[in-house]
Write a structure and sequence with these properties.
The chain has 229 residues and is of the alpha+beta class. It folds into 2 domains: 138 residues, no CATH class; 77 residues, ACT domain (Alpha-Beta Plaits, 2-Layer Sandwich). The chain is 58% helix and 16% strand. The chain is built from 8 helices and 4 strands, in the order H-H-H-H-H-H-E-H-E-E-H-E. It has a 4-stranded antiparallel sheet with strand order 2-3-1-4, with helices on one face. It is elongated and about 75 Å long.
Length: 229
């Protein structure tokens, strides 16, 4: 039994690959860098195409790429084999989700590590990347809660505008006008995104808008109804 354990722990000795301590340090440093990249992307992103899965992939990719590079250190044959595997996967499947691509990369790296008898590297990568995916899932890293609901409505005449703004400010911490359109019957169509003071009282907001004179065709959609691209 001890012979198998010694072979397992020393399988990378003399292979040109850094030891387990170095591999662990490399993965942790790459993880810190991935977090910084993800945070910067979140803070600087503008537009409607934001994706939480893409941000999570930005965090996961650096550790896995670092693990790939550790496997290829001083071994040209492994590098060529890895390129061949990636080419085959790319030919067979077109992955639309960046998270799916991350899992495919993870599975390939683990298979290469085991296939080249680098068992400590395979286990360290399995544990570290697995914990990272669980951490991202538990913390919902990359999610941005900027608004609770979307409100669409029509106004008739200029009188309701002041009352509309007052109602929205009373119920909301943040109000963003997303669209405004002039209609043929001299009415106007508005769409707002709101961060509510109390999301549990969204029904009261809806009732107050519907009961205000000059405001009609009110509809309210919760944040979960928004599609993430």
């Amino acid at each position: 039994m001890s012979g198998w354990l010694d072979q397992f722990l020393n399988s990378e000795v003399g292979s040109g690959t850094p030891g387990p301590e170095t591999i662990l340090l490399v993965i942790l440093l790459a993880l810190c860098i991935g977090h910084v990249v993800g945070w910067i992307y979140m803070w600087t992103h503008a537009g409607l195409s934001y994706s939480q899965m893409f941000v999570a992939s930005l965090v996961v990719m650096p550790p896995m790429v670092a693990l790939v590079m550790q496997l290829m250190v001083g071994d040209v044959i492994t590098a060529i084999g890895l390129m061949a595997v990636f080419a085959m996967v790319r030919f067979r499947n077109v992955l639309k989700d960046t998270r799916d691509a991350s899992f495919v990369l993870w599975a390939i790296v683990e298979g290469m590590a085991v296939g080249t008898m680098r068992f400590p590297t395979a286990l360290i990568g399995l544990v570290c990347v697995g914990i990272l995916f669980v951490y991202l899932r538990i913390t919902s890293f990359g999610g941005r809660h900027r608004f609770d609901v979307i409100v669409s409505l029509q106004t008739f005449g200029d009188a309701p505008l002041a009352a509309l703004r007052q109602i929205l400010r009373r119920h909301s911490v943040r109000v963003q006008l997303t669209s405004q359109r002039e209609l043929a019957d001299q009415s106007r169509d508005f769409s707002y995104r709101l961060l509510l003071r109390n999301p549990m009282r969204s029904g009261e907001l809806l009732q107050e808008l519907e009961s205000t004179e000059g405001i009609g065709h009110v509809s309210l959609f919760h944040r979960e109804d928004e599609s993430e691209i």
